[in-house]
């Protein structure tokens, strides 16, 4: 698990299809007389190098992701994945994720990249960061305090949540086929993705490397050699 300075952004494995690599290989051999033979490394490499990614739809993995509402909005755009997220209509996130929300306002403060509006660069000067930290803590404390007062007065959570900052912690579960995760990591684990989101994608990559080492090694070798578009998250030097 990798964490940012606030400790808010990370992923852990919920579950993965048992014997996922064997399942993929057996289904890839659906048209053969012996689909259950043990060796499958060459088969996996062949499928990746020739773009036969449909075989990776035969196994799934689900991850629990802890992040902020600002980043969860980015993750939810990946429509090939299926999600369940903590609902601020039914729950008080400052209560359920109390420990994380104590540090939620300590998010990284980086400079805007003048050449790329989708990118930020090195953190601001420490003096500037320190001056904003005091004000951020005060502002977040006021927002959380007002939120609690509204709930205590009987205001519905679905209304009171409108004042919660985007840095408020959230929890979601994301389920998808290995194919979906392959392309998610390829895109979101690379340069150009917001740092906090990239940390999550890299966590998921590390977890998959433990669970499906043959597939992930084949992907890394292929991407290092060919450099296909939108797959830089699998480069060997990108962790």
Secondary-structure topology with pairs:
Blueprint: E1 10-16, H1 20-28, H2 41-49, E2 60-68, H3 69-75, E3 82-85, H4 93-96, H5 98-101, E4 110-112, E5 120-123, H6 126-152, H7 157-160, E6 169-177, H8 178-188, H9 195-211, H10 213-226
Antiparallel strand pairs: 1-2, 2-6, 3-6, 4-5
Helix content: 40-55%
What is the number of E strands? 6
Distance from N terminus to C terminus (CA atoms, Å) equals: 12 Å
**The first-level CATH class name of the domain at 10-82 and 169-234:** Alpha Beta
| The CATH architecture of the domain at 10-82 and 169-234 | 2-Layer Sandwich
Quote the average pLDDT: 94
**SS-derived structural category:** alpha+beta
Molecular structure report:
By secondary structure, the protein is an alpha+beta fold. It has a domain at 10-82 and 169-234: Gyrase A, domain 2, CATH 3.30.1360. The protein has helices spanning 20-28, 41-49, 69-75, 93-96, 98-101, 126-152, 157-160, 178-188, 195-211, 213-226; strands at 10-16, 60-68, 82-85, 110-112, 120-123, 169-177. β4 and β5 (120-123) form a beta hairpin. α2 runs parallel beside α10, α8 (178-188) crosses α9 (195-211) and α9 packs across α10.
């Amino acid at each position: 698990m990798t964490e940012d300075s606030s400790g808010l952004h990370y992923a852990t494995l919920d579950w993965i299809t048992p014997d996922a690599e064997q399942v993929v290989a057996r289904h890839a051999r659906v048209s053969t007389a012996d689909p259950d033979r043990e060796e499958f490394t060459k088969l996996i490499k062949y499928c990746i190098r020739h773009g036969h990614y449909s075989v990776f739809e035969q196994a799934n993995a689900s991850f629990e992701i802890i992040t902020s509402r600002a980043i969860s909005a980015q993750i939810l755009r990946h429509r090939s994945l299926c999600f369940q997220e903590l609902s601020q209509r039914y729950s008080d996130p400052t209560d359920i994720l109390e420990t994380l929300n104590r540090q939620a306002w300590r998010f990284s403060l980086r400079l805007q990249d003048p050449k790329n509006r989708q990118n930020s660069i090195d953190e601001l000067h420490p003096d500037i960061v320190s001056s904003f930290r005091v004000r951020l803590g005060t502002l977040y404390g006021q927002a959380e305090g007002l939120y609690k007062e509204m709930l205590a007065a009987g205001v519905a959570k679905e209304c009171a949540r409108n004042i919660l900052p985007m840095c408020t912690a959230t929890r979601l579960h994301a389920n998808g086929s290995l194919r979906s995760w392959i392309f998610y990591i390829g895109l979101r684990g690379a340069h150009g993705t917001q740092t906090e989101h990239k940390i999550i994608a890299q966590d998921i990559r590390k977890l998959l490397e433990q669970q499906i080492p043959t597939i992930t090694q084949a992907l890394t070798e292929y991407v290092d050699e060919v450099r296909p578009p939108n797959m830089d998250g699998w480069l060997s030097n990108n962790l």
